[in-house]
């Protein structure tokens, strides 16, 4: 019997579609949570008022920040999910290799972050529609709108997709390292702790905070470059642990 | 052509050795039975060959490549066991469709016919199948994938007798049309006896025997006679097991008897017979019949 030689790119594509099909449920969960939050969050996040003798002004602020936060948490969970043994074992029921598994996962993260980003940003539009239909008060929108300020709208979209993708890959790579050596969880926890507790810390002479490195970037282009560089670095790093992981250990 | 070759392979699970000094090679298109007691290291060995696990030491070559992380080995091999972790939301039909996409030699028609024959519904999820049906489904996958290297690790767990027989027959029939290298592990030597050519016995983390089935049977001899006669006739021979059968005793010995010695045996009235493969295997893996009796026999002499 002659041996079959498969092209890596072809198998990556097959694994990617397989991952999408076998993980439909995670998207259902995302949509359900987004819809639920869209409805729940149509209450004002803050209400303020001011007035003089003959004029009184009351305003309420509505925001989809909650949906954005929830979507980012979902991204975190997706990054974690793809490192679980169940996911890997399922891939290895079919044709797979560590490299293929990684690349298919990255493609999956790409698709998942686009879906998550688009739906999270559009949830703002859904909220506007709900507010317009249910509230009698004057409606003022200061959020980026596709028709009024398309550049801002797409910037929001790109940022959301980038954050989501970055989170997935970050958690994925970190968890792969933890699987390689459980003790590595300690420096990771320390790093996360330092990033949330201290706004700036000195690390090998460089002052800064990993979060503000991305979050504080006001230029879209620089932000894109930073995210791309970080993603590339994480992708390369993830190769190290993934090559050692043993699979289908029931 | 040699498909699998292992040289001085060792495997440890965090310092606990599970395989030591494993060296053997398997030629193309041979059906090899893999046997051994519980915990002997069969599954670990098969998973190392499939490329799922990494040997701690030693050299493993499958299709002239290190199988761990190899795309070539993955594309040309399939590993069937009773812990296939299919994704929950997918129905059997979809799972089969995935196998078709991934495996170049997949025989869709055969898979469909086998599914129908074994009465497994297509539009059901794997976890809703009974234990035996799950094994049958996996076995169908293993046969229809037509991989150059097909590994079955205890494929018949939970199958009823009819399904077992059908499976072995289907495997053999498809093998005749499409020869491939098959590794088949089972605890029921009798069942696989008719389809395996070679037997690989793993015992105490090592290869205890690798060779043809008939050679193994000829390596041992079963003798029946009275205790006195047996003691006299088998002086200096390696006795594997002793069982009392009424007035007579049955001893299993390593077969290194010369013609003269055989003549002496028959003069003493000792009947000698070839062992069944199962008995030979049990003797090899130190599972003497009646061995468990000793546990309950508190008045040992």
TrEMBL record, chain A:
TM segment ranges: 24-46, 66-85, 106-133, 153-176, 183-200, 220-240
Keywords from the named record: Membrane, Transmembrane, Transmembrane helix
Domain of life: Bacteria
Protein name: ABC transporter permease
UniProtKB/TrEMBL annotation, chain B:
Keyword field: ATP-binding, Nucleotide-binding
Gene3D superfamilies xrefs: P-loop containing nucleotide triphosphate hydrolases (3.40.50.300)
Coiled-coil intervals: none
Entry's Gene Ontology molecular function annotations: ATP binding
Stored Pfam families: ABC_tran
InterPro entries xref list: AAA+_ATPase (IPR003593), ABC_transporter-like_ATP-bd (IPR003439), P-loop_NTPase (IPR027417)
Residue ranges of every copy of the ABC transporter domain listed in the record: 4-229
PANTHER family assigned to the protein according to its UniProt record, in alphabetical order: ABC TRANSPORTER, ATP-BINDING PROTEIN, SKFA PEPTIDE EXPORT ATP-BINDING PROTEIN SKFE
Protein name: ABC transporter ATP-binding protein
